[in-house]
Amino acid sequence: MTSRPNALEIEDLVMHFGPVRAVDGVSLTIAAGRVTALVGESGSGKSTVGRCVVRLVEPTAGVVRIAGADVTHLSRRQLRPHRDAVSIVFQDPAASLDPRMLVGEIVAEPLRLAGRRVPRREREARVAPQLERVGLRAEVARRYPHELSGGQRQRVSIARALVSEPMLLIADEPTSALDVSVQASVLNLLADLQRDIGFACLFITHDLSAVEYLADDIAVMYLGQLVEKGSRERIFARPAHPYTQALLAAAPVADPVRQRQRQPVLLGDDLPSALDPPSGCRFRTRCPLAFDTCATEVPPQVPIGDGMAACHLVRPDGTGPDVRTADPSEVLS
Amino acid sequence: MTTAPASTATTVLEMRDLSVSFPTETGTVSAVDGAALDLAAGEIVGMVGESGCGKSVTGMSIAGLLPGSARVTGSVRLNGTELVGARESALRRVRGREIAYIFQEPMTSLNPVLTVGRQIGEVLQVHERMSRRAAHARAVELLTLVGIPSATHRVGAYPHQLSGGMRQRVMIAMAVACGPKVLVADEPTTALDVTVQAGILQVLRDLRDRLGTSILIITHDLGVIADIADRVVVMYAGRVVERAPVTDLFARPYHHYTAGLLSASPKPGRHASTARLAEIPGLVPVLSTQPDACTFADRCPAADARCRESAPPLEVAGDGTDHLAACWHPCPPQPREANR
Ligand SMILES: Nc1ncnc2c1ncn2[C@@H]1O[C@H](COP(=O)(O)OP(=O)(O)OP(=O)(O)O)[C@@H](O)[C@H]1O
Ligand SMILES: Nc1ncnc2c1ncn2[C@@H]1O[C@H](COP(=O)(O)OP(=O)(O)OP(=O)(O)O)[C@@H](O)[C@H]1O
Ligand code: SF4
Ligand SMILES: [Mg+2]
Ligand SMILES: [Mg+2]
């Protein structure tokens, strides 16, 4: 790969909704053509990061650069030239497609929004190959969203997102509303398109098996902040942060024999709130390994390879205890 | 982890030949066709199947929760008492006390203007004729039982003041308030983070262990099934197509739909650069009348004329007597790793 600019650079991103500290200092870079998965618990701020990147909301602070251009505070008009560079696919295909528009109009919509008047003939000519690319027949262009299945609707929203040939695709839980078998077809499709077209992707999900299948890199979010970053291989083989370890331990595997041999890691149930995050390490109220310092000092981001982990127990060489095997009473000795 | 021995335990719930259809403006929709199911005391049965295949309708028919428009035939017996066609007053007595239902959406089934303690207390006041005081105290116990920290404090909270995982636990506390014999949990952990999900599954297991409750858990997450179910029922287009102890089902699916489902989920260690996920081409049919054919035939790699001409019965498959499948040409062994 030559020296294309990074598809996405986020620096110290902050997004507060009144008192809700949805995103509180997130930094993340996605190189051109790479897939980064953003995982983390419900309400941790994953979608909000995605919404800041496509500028559905204007960040409270921080910087968002797309393909090298700072778009953090651009107005709607100023954003236009950058619209083509980034697109988003939302979780719920039923809710994100306008029920009164024909599929063909939906797919062509981004062209219109980018300020280009596309005559009807040309529109149809542009839409047909887009639909084919996502495995839909060209006739689908003349149907309404409710006449399609969930998986077909999700293909339509992917076609719409890709019509402008973006450099970066934000996929916000693109498969979680779908059945296992339909999920498989959408994941295959994303993998094929990503390989063929070479866009970068921020893949937001809480399905770790989908992450392992699709991602190159992983960022783990907890209560508005990133707690760990790293390559897919490293995170699955040697997760360093207790929350990442707990996530991997808690994701059940679809194999009863193996699943029942695994050691459950039950986290504390004191779920904190983005209105009033805990002092020190935000994970400490649920962390099985938390000790005094965790309540008083914000943990440093310990570099591990290209990534990092933010935990007091991770040593400078990137090693540390593992909640999946550690006995909490012995960790500090 | 204990596993209920289905053969020796007493059957609490017995469903036979259950069919449910709905008259709609565009014609009849056949939602369930001839479903059969047993729940032994203290057993956890998992139910899987593609969206729209009739899982919730089957579950609701157990709890007598189907809308009045539903046409129901067949039999559902709870400890020998027939529930299909029973009077609403009789059903109301059964519901809550003996059979409880956890709906998929905790926020829409909790009352936003009442504290969770009041809501649990009301169930107890109605069904157990408890005083308000006693009901309040019992509500605190129940919240503790389902693993809500500082229950004495949280009993006074309104639903919006709790996280998604805690609301789901409140729903479970309400469902188990009267110590039901049967609990139907319809997608109880969908949309929850896996660390919270693990806690909820533990609560369900504890409930079975402590009170001997039988649980039917409906989900599309095969990991959840692998984790908690003793036996599994697989539905497809309104019919039960396979039924087996959990390890048997995962080790050796006989129905092609089950095999397709199992191989569609991503396997640990695989990446898109080297592997593709197996897909099941085609869509679940919505049927107005149930055809005399295998309803999976259109999507099945092994289908032939026989499959399109007569419906395969649910029969004992292989050597185990408790592994049933409805297929004319059952899958050969080890079809799962077929997706390269
Ligand atoms: N417009 C808004 N106004 C107020 N609060 C908001 C708004 N949007 C999001 N939030 C809050 O910000 C936090 C982060 O929400 P976000 O949707 O980004 O989480 P998420 O990680 O995507 O969760 P999920 O996995 O459930 O989709 C939550 O506490 C949420 O309630
Ligand atoms: N009240 C109703 N009136 C008409 N049709 C209905 C009604 N309730 C359910 N159905 C239909 O019955 C079929 C089975 O629905 P059911 O809700 O049991 O599916 P499910 O397996 O639970 O699906 P999901 O996984 O999406 O929850 C569907 O085709 C559905 O549209
Ligand atoms: S810093 Fe402390 S509380 Fe936070 S994850 Fe590490 S050990 Fe747990
Ligand atoms: Mg989200
Ligand atoms: Mg359902």
Automatic annotation (TrEMBL), chain A:
Keyword check for Transport: yes
Q: Give the ABC transporter domain ranges.
A: 8-248
Q: Which UniProt keywords apply?
A: ATP-binding, Nucleotide-binding, Transport
UniProt cross-references to InterPro entries, sorted A to Z: AAA+_ATPase, ABC_transp_ATP-bind, ABC_transporter-like_ATP-bd, ABC_transporter-like_CS, Oligopep_ABC_C, P-loop_NTPase
Q: What is the lineage of its organism?
A: Bacteria, Bacillati, Actinomycetota, Actinomycetes, Micromonosporales
Assigned protein family: Belongs to the ABC transporter superfamily.
Molecular-function annotations in GO: ATP binding; ATP hydrolysis activity
Q: Do you know which Gene3D superfamilies this protein is assigned to?
A: P-loop containing nucleotide triphosphate hydrolases (3.40.50.300)
Q: Does the keyword Transport apply?
A: yes
The leader peptide range reads: none
Spell out the protein name for this chain. Answer: ATP-binding cassette domain-containing protein
**What is the scientific name of the source organism?**
Micromonospora orduensis
UniProtKB/TrEMBL annotation, chain B:
Q: Which domain of life is it from?
A: Bacteria
**Per its UniProt record, what Gene3D superfamilies does this chain match?**
P-loop containing nucleotide triphosphate hydrolases
Where does the record place it?
A: Cell membrane
Keyword vocabulary terms for this entry: ATP-binding, Cell membrane, Membrane, Nucleotide-binding, Transport
Q: Does the keyword Nucleotidyltransferase apply?
A: no
The record's GO CC annotations read: plasma membrane
The keyword Transmembrane helix is assigned to this record: no
Listed GO molecular functions? ATP binding; ATP hydrolysis activity
Q: Which InterPro entries match?
A: AAA+_ATPase (IPR003593), ABC_Ni/Peptide_Import (IPR050388), ABC_transporter-like_ATP-bd (IPR003439), ABC_transporter-like_CS (IPR017871), Oligopep_ABC_C (IPR013563), P-loop_NTPase (IPR027417)
One Gene Ontology term from the biological process aspect of the record = peptide transport
Write out the similarity annotation.
Answer: Belongs to the ABC transporter superfamily.
Protein name (record): ABC transporter ATP-binding protein
Which organism is this protein's natural source? Micromonospora orduensis
